[in-house]
């Protein structure tokens, strides 16, 4: 099993979730994060005091998938989150050694 | 204001009758209408400080210090009220001499429910004045926010009230030497805004900047709170300036008109400047301009007309905007919430410019005339200038001395550096503002 | 209101004396008590807009647009005040003809501190009216929130004030053609709520819906802010309707009673409907019903009794609830904060139904009688209907034309689509509401 | 208050003239000034409940229940207003007998715009009293916050208003048996604070603690909201106590002075106690002390002087602080927002101690004398004690019975345990307070 | 060393932390997240406009443990977070290559 | 590629980001978290009701790096976040199997 961590633009969240849903992945855990990268933030002025907001609001999706789902999941995310503009985000994949569903104690692909 | 306006009629006698020995003013009768309006005004001016000013300031600090600002405003309200009752009112409005009142009204002694001050109950006059004595030290909070020890803050505010605010009030509204000269200060440009503004500047310099200033960004944590507070200040100011007529009549009405117009124009001007200069008008800019407009019209509000108010608001926007930039960007003084450039500079501007727009000869920009015995803009202006300069100098020196004294008594004015990083809410009050 | 109530006595002469040439009304004396109450009412009505309405609206939008709504309300306050001083008051309340006032009061010229309007200072009457001229365009903000350009918003509001609000005010309160007919509008059902509501609907249609409407959910970002604003509106409305008596007497008292009862009943009704229909009563529903009750009683508040107010509040709840559902769910018009279904529909309902409950022959539901010379519900109703229809038509056409004009001048009424996604706070004002 | 102060002059006759048969008081003339001030006071007291008290309470609960508290305060406002109009006012202030009024004023029948109560419109007196009838049940909300069913809450509040509040009001302000004895309750120590406080304690016991109390921490979710609400309460209390003079005169002025002083001293005292005891003064402590000071001075506010107020505020801080600790830490009763220790205990303290500080023989701590025919502290004290004890007993029993009844009618007073965990906002109102 | 990522219901947080404490694990990092899965959210109505809240508030715990602690830690979480109701959450386990304590520079199990 | 997860004190965030920037790493994703560990929280009192705040606000940085950058990145974080006081935080390193830039579809080191 793999853990996909995707960082995308907040207003794309619904699209990505729908795309994942379409390929049969309903479980997602979402966190609001601040992103730093190539895309630049903006400058705010408060009574003339400059305040450079160099982070950008992003959302992070964590999705545990089976090996078989991995590629279609990645494709689904890339397709739905892409705006062709800088700052669209990244996808990271790490190996998942174990997954357990707390309610039932099920493990492995069953637990997803 | 209060004093000044009446003195024009029969200077000394009225003064004695109305203010120093009000209980003897048996000939006068209670005017219920005026009483009703000043009761309302008193509520409005208290409303300006809590929650108005408290919200205005608290929204501007970082969220780790939000409660500390509220706490400072509340604690000052309590302490100033008690001090005013015990001795402040007596020293400010007791007969005394040209410099200070006396102890005849200590603990409001001699003030009964029937005692009048002019045609309103003296208890009401003293109470209305109490709300001014509350807001003035509370204004200074903006200068030392986010770093001053609570104990030092409390001690400073109490001493400052008695040593600076009380005598200045006596000079101008209590029949003191500036009143005698015919100075114009309708609702507290000198008494309130200049004293608070100058004290703020001195405090900011003596305390030093917040850790990280000016390199670290310290954006307001909740501008919605600040704007709501600003709205309350605007509304409450109707009681501040309109109530200073001490009557429900055309003077009060016109004071409210000019107050409102100057606020509108100040806000609009600040907005336009930001729009031109930075490309976008900000809400914080608009409300800051509004406060500048209000502060600036305050000393003039009983003496100028709507046309004059329009110009005063315009100038308030321009001058206070420039002052803010200058203090923060050029002098790099961390007067954290811009008390001096807004209130101090606005108060100075308004206290001087009233000499122009009080003139009855400016057509649509005319006002309602100079003080008794004064016949030219220059004549009034020179008196105003004397007042402005002497109050600046007196306030600056006295504030400096008080701060040094308090520092000695409390082992330093500032919280320690770690507490400052962690925030005053937890370290000074063991609370947090938000657990959303 | 103001005008109408007096005209009943000696129609034309009083009209001339009190309103058009108030400075000539030398026979009249200042009534301090009435002045005190109208000073207070003026503060209360300003309080309704800032911070009241601003909070009510700002809580309903998404957090990325919260400051833009505050900024719109503040900027309108400034601009409307200045325009009212410069020319608006004169065109609305100057003698003029049946359609529009004149230029005799430009820059409040001829208004001195001693000038009276009836038995209160004319400066006060003009100022009280100014607060109405502020809130009316501010109400429209709810229709185009979250998407209109700030520059276009400002231009639209200014022009609309002069082209729509000012003449309608003249027709009804300034002695114009509807006043002559004996129309009833105590505190602004037609003048304020119908004009604002209809303009809102037109603006919503012309601007088009927010990006994502109606498929994307746009829940209120801070209902606590909305409810607090609602509370302020309720309290402030005592000045709005009670102050419209222009006196501190039983008329003002009864106006407050019926205002309060209608608000309570409107809120309670809305709550019960939601409870029945959706299973749970919501806080947003309750405060919306409250505003509906307040808006609906407004034109009637000086003419009906407590029993009538109970029924009016009940109807306000039912009718405005249905209207909200209809506009949003059936017509799918993005009148974002429901200005038309609440204020417009409420205003129409109240302006018509006053003809019923003003009747003195309804037992416990009786009111205080019809306009001078009118003797039946049908008689009063037909006048009210003429007023309602003509003001709806006039407002709709004029608003449409103004929007098209402003659009041409500012290169489109809306911010661009990316800015809308990112939020107006950052893109139009370079600020953020919260940094908690 | 209202009643008591006048009865001192010519006990029964005036009573009949002013309050029971006000429409017959043809000899009296409307006093515009008094009317203006009571109009204002009415707005101020409504402001205390919405948004004041609602914010004060809502900030103290967890964010999942914030809207439920607002909703409770708003719904009570609506229901209490309607009940007061329909029957409450008549039963409280109608002539009736020593125990209860009558039905002569049902639906405000017989109250015209010209009808007077004393020298103000009776519609205004009834409306002013309505705002008291609103805030009293709203105060109880703090006891059962975060767990009571909305339907049960609504039913309880309505019945309680008619069964507890209305008769107690009649006894004290409506010419009932305690009024006859010469009891002192200027603005509602017994009528408002003791009844609400005792009902709160009973409700807290009957409902049982919130899930998790006292082991789980339930910190206030938004202390800034609580503090802002506290500020509004302070300001609004000027109308509560000052308005209870029913006139714009020295009595109102002095009532405001002592109210303000007691609030300041209460807050200051609480702050100092926390500072000594826990090492740090908290903002929540300061505002709690302020409310304690306000509640305690309420029954005494028309009878004591500023010196007395200083002591009353001091005692309020000490006694209510101790009571809070005792109820929460020792008795472990989950009176969630401390209604009993602050309002109940404060009300008891104030209602008793007025007997001391009303004395004219305490030098600087003197007040304005005892009730008609009473000549010693002991004399007044025994009457006060009778009132306090009988109202405590009556309220406790009646509240208990009402709760049991409502529980039977609504199938249990509490929401179910899962809903309590998830929060009342979503489960009872299908809304969430914040979507920041 | 392993990194345990557990997603649980917010009101279970204290129980889970206590259970971990009992077996000697004191270090935890907690994030508030939004969960999407089998468990359904609710519908909110604002003046008749429906708003489907399809996420549920959850908390995510991240716990770095040694190999030996892994199983007892998982058991502790399952036992304490279980309510037998849908939406109880998941446990994910990934491999931790390195752990460093910033204050001391210690690495490996020492650093936990 | 590796994923570095660093938990540091909030007021150190800017320093850490600068240090990373200096060694050529500009991309970072930041989350506000609550930390439990050796460092103790404080006690708040609300009208005498004690409330032990046992968590401490921390920020979590997630940084995807190439193998080569790993050590210098770790050093940069340790140096800049260190205050020598308890609670300075931890660094966790896990293996990253895949990285994708959503905008371009680039993968591997290119995508960082
Ligand atoms: N090396 C990295 N490690 C972790 N997160 C990263 C890294 N680089 C970028 N990110 C995240 O991805 C977001 C988008 O990256 P950015 O460089 O702005 O544009 P793009 O995705 O088009 O390359 C950033 O805001 C940040 O949250
Ligand atoms: N595949 C997944 N990847 C990541 N997080 C998941 C996944 N499935 C579920 N979750 C998280 O676990 C939570 C509970 O899952 P859910 O399917 O609702 O119930 P259960 O835990 O009983 O299976 C979700 O709200 C979500 O945060
Ligand atoms: N085993 C762990 N797993 C996950 N996070 C941990 C662990 N131990 C500590 N942390 C995180 O690191 C922070 C600092 O740890 P702490 O033990 O307080 O001090 P130190 O970093 O000096 O060892 C904690 O607040 C927590 O966020």
Element layout with pairings:
The complex is a heterohexamer, with three copies of chain A (112 residues) and three copies of chain B (436 residues).
Chain A: E1 2-8, H1 13-22, E2 28-36, E3 42-46, E4 49-53, E5 56-65, H2 67-81, E6 90-95, E7 98-101
Antiparallel strand pairs in A: 1-5, 1-6, 2-5, 3-4
Chain B: H1 2-7, H2 11-20, H3 32-58, H4 66-93, E1 116-117, E2 120-121, H5 122-144, H6 150-173, H7 177-181, H8 189-207, H9 223-242, H10 250-278, H11 283-297, H12 306-330, H13 339-357, H14 377-410, H15 417-422, H16 424-429
Antiparallel strand pairs in B: 1-2
* CATH architecture term of chain B: Orthogonal Bundle
Topology as H/E string of chain B?
Answer: HHHHEEHHHHHHHHHHHH
Measured between the Cα atoms of the first and last residue of chain B, the distance is 46 Å
CA-based gyration radius of chain A: 17 Å
Largest sheet of chain A: 4 strands, antiparallel
Describe this structure in words.
The complex is a heterohexamer, with three copies of chain A (112 residues) and three copies of chain B (436 residues). In chain A, the strands form two sheets. Chain A has a four-stranded antiparallel sheet, with helices on one face. A two-stranded antiparallel ribbon of chain A has the order 3-4. Chain A is elongated, with a radius of gyration of 17 Å. With 112 residues, chain A is of the alpha+beta class. Chain A has helices at residues 13-22, 67-81; strands at 2-8, 28-36, 42-46, 49-53, 56-65, 90-95, 98-101. Chain A is built from two helices and seven strands; from the N terminus they run E-H-E-E-E-E-H-E-E. In chain A, helix 1 runs antiparallel to helix 2 (67-81). By secondary structure, chain B is mostly helical. Chain B has helices at residues 2-7, 11-20, 32-58, 66-93, 122-144, 150-173, 177-181, 189-207, 223-242, 250-278, 283-297, 306-330, 339-357, 377-410, 417-422, 424-429; strands spanning 116-117, 120-121. In chain B, strand 1 (116-117) and strand 2 form a beta hairpin. The longest helix of chain B has 34 residues, at 377-410. The radius of gyration of chain B is 21 Å and the shape is globular. At the B-D interface, helix 3, helix 4, strand 2 and helix 5 of B face helix 3, helix 9, helix 10, helix 11 and helix 12 of D. One adenosine-5'-diphosphate (ADP) sits between chains E (7, 35-39, 56, 58, 86-90) and A (27-29, 62-64, 101-103, 112).
